[in-house]
User: Fold this.
Amino acid sequence: MSKIRKKAMLRLVLCAVALIACIIFSVLLLRGTFDGKTGGSSAPAGDVISADASAISDPTADSFTASTPEETPAEEAQPEATPEPTPEPTAVPTYDGLSVQPTTYYNEGEQPGYTVTPDNNLNMRAGPSTDYDVLGKVPAATAVTALGTNEDGSWVVVNYNGIYGWLKTEYLNS
Assistant:
């Protein structure tokens, strides 16, 4: 058996002994046969409780040593820590045909849906302003999904019929 396995087995046995001792102590406390006082008389007549703490061996104590040198694990060099991998930066999408890209991008599944107001056909623009070129029209009452937004959220980028464009949120219902 390798030294590492012996060391692991020794630790496992010590943990098991400590667990058993805790269970026994808990049962004694719950039964009321051991109140933690050395001179207490709460034990029934047939039970014997030793008040000598030196008779109890603590396997978790720092001074614990194994009885044979073969059981004592040798000091082993700590394995070199593996550096954490650096996460790849998430690529910011670029939307073709736009003069201005959004400042905020929505993650897939978190993209808000909008409907164009029933009384307006909206112009899709190349940027978040009426100063930009019209790229297409979105008919009234059409559902669209926002892909991103400008800084103040007054315009959103959508994809309608394969064309990316900016729509004014004032004319959209959420």
Remarks:
- The radius of gyration is 37 Å.
- Residues 38-43 have pLDDT under 50 and may be disordered.
- Residues 1-38+57-73 form one domain.
